Amino acid sequence: KITDVTYKRIKFQDLNGWKLDQLSEVLPLMKKSCLKLATRQYENKFGLSVTNWRDGCKKIIDIKLKDDNNLIKNVLESNFDPFSVSNGKNFEGIFTGYFEIILEGSYTKNSEYTVPLYGVPKDMITLNNRAFKLPNSSPSLIGQVVENQLVPYDDRRTIKLNPEFNKRAKVLVWVKDIVDAHLLHIQGSGIIKFQSGVYKRIGYAGNNGRSFRGIGSILLSKGLITESQASMPEIAKWLKANTHLSSKLLDQNPRYIFFRWTGKDGPIGAFDIPLIPGRSLAIDPKYIPFGAPIWLETKGPDQENINRLVVALDTGAAIKGPVRGDYFWGKGEDAFYKAGRMKSKGRYFIFLPKNTTIK
Q: Which of 261-280 are b and which e, b meaning 16 or more Cβ less than 10 Å from the residue's Cβ?
């Protein structure tokens, strides 16, 4: 579903907390992002057209005194303009949180490690929309060939129940817990801890093309939890306490995620840049260009103010709409407790080069 959106140029002094943010924390992300943005253009069907990131990005890349917040502010103010984003009526949207989960894993299956994490299947096909002259707005079609016909790829339950699926997709690692594995499917990236003490990062590589249905909405629709229990920590707690129901309930989300070893120092977002906690945001790329600096104004799960510069580095199946974001909290239990309880109203402003046009 495509929603209308309005972009409006504003002034830096209209941003809450602009003079207080420690921009040196986000400068490394902006530099990495700018290395990619410098060669890109962005245009969407709502009239936003960015044809030249290069000049402004060169100024960011050339910043040498990384701890000089005034210098960073001056570079941004001289080369970019903030734009408010709204759906035409409302500037506020919903901001949730995500994190990087740590799971215990084994390269071999045994009585303890029974849940597989698969790589991308060799029989999965993604339709080339451009080759078939389909509109850019057409969703990507993912499927498989059965009796010379392209049909939807297997859903979660079918994959899980197929004892020979490992002939179609390589098992990268076996983990202990089906609930933790599902959290990894939702978050998109995580850390595998092996018994040897080695840690290895794993990340999103693809999906089966099926629609996403959140486990929270599944439990709520069946009356198994109340609205007050709908945070992810409470949902995970409920699922682990009701293991006789968990598997079938999780299967009602037909989307299935495939993974890859990232070999990186941090979790990798959709823009293929390692995320930094508190400075990375997942957005809907239909409305917001990947790599753009964004001024975020929202609240954390304990009502703490979040007024800071972040970078649009990721996306997700549930991140849809002009004003919608997923704030990256980091790794481990503390980050899970923060991310899983966050569901706050807020707004954001995109920083775009001064030459940007709104048609």
A: ebeeebbbbbbebbbbbbbb
* Tens of each residue's pLDDT in the chain, 359 residues: 667 899 999 999 999 999 999 999 999 999 999 999 988 989 888 889 898 999 999 999 999 877 789 999 999 999 999 999 998 788 999 999 999 999 999 999 999 999 999 999 999 999 888 888 887 667 778 999 999 999 999 999 999 999 999 999 999 999 999 999 999 999 999 999 999 999 999 999 999 999 999 999 999 999 999 999 999 999 999 999 999 999 999 999 999 999 999 987 789 999 999 999 999 999 999 999 999 999 999 999 999 999 999 999 999 988 999 999 999 999 999 999 999 999 999 999 999 999 888 88
Indicate the pTM of the whole model: 0.86
Report helix, strand or coil for 222: coil
Positive/negative CA dihedral, 342, 346, 351, 356: positive
Q: Which two tokens stand for residue 320?
A: 């849809």
